[in-house]
Amino acid sequence: MCADGYDRFVVLASFLVGLVAVIVATVYCVVRGLQLRKQAKATSGVLSPEVAKFEARSARTERLLAENERSSKELQAALARLQVSRARLQVLLDAVDQATARTRWLRAFLPSR
Questions:
Q1: What is the rounded CA–CA span in Å between residue 14 and residue 44?
Q2: Where in 48-101 does DSSP place strands (E)?
Q3: 23 Cβ contact partners less than 8 Å away, ≥ 6 residues apart
Q4: Spatial separation of the C-alpha atoms in residues 58 and 52, rounded to whole Å
Q5: Distance of alpha carbon 59 from alpha carbon 67, whole angstroms
Q6: Angstrom distance (rounded) from CA 97 to CA 89
Q7: SS3 10
Q8: What band does 102 get if pLDDT is binned at 50, 70 and 90?
Q9: What backbone phi and psi angles, to 5 degrees, belong to 10?
Q10: What is the model's pTM?
Q11: What is the Cα–Cα distance from 59 to 53, expressed in whole angstroms?
Q12: What pLDDT, on a 0 to 100 scale, did the predictor assign at position 1?
């Protein structure tokens, strides 16, 4: 009968040790969870303005990139117009040179200055 009482004591002691371990672990988890919640609130309070600044800067960067792309397209169009204008000017200069060469003989009949 002693062995039977001893077995019950061991089972009861094991149960109590396990119960205490579960309670201690639960309390530890609750305390750490509350600390984590407090830290998360503090961190979000600090990070929120920084995230807002980052979002504003990234939006500004996107806008500037879009403007840069638009300006680049406008510059390409202006360059194409300039090339056409230079080609026209060259045609006109060639025509003036040709006309000057054809009328060079008239200088002999013009009074000198």
A1: 44
A2: none
A3: none
A4: 10
A5: 12
A6: 12
A7: helix
A8: confident
A9: -65, -45
A10: 0.45
A11: 10
A12: 45
Host H or E run for residue 73: helix 2-102
What is the end-to-end Cα distance of the chain in Å, rounded? 149
Alpha-carbon dihedral 55, 60, 62, 65, rounded to 10 degrees = -160
Average pLDDT value for residue range 9-26: 95
Q: How is residue 42 written in tokens? A: 């503090």
Residue 34 tokens, joined: 């509350």
Residue type, 83: Q
Amino acid identity of residue 109, one-letter, is F
Residue 108 tokens, joined: 């002999």
Apex 42 CA angle, 57 and 46, nearest 5: 20
Helix%, strand%, coil% for the chain, nearest 5 = 95, 0, 5
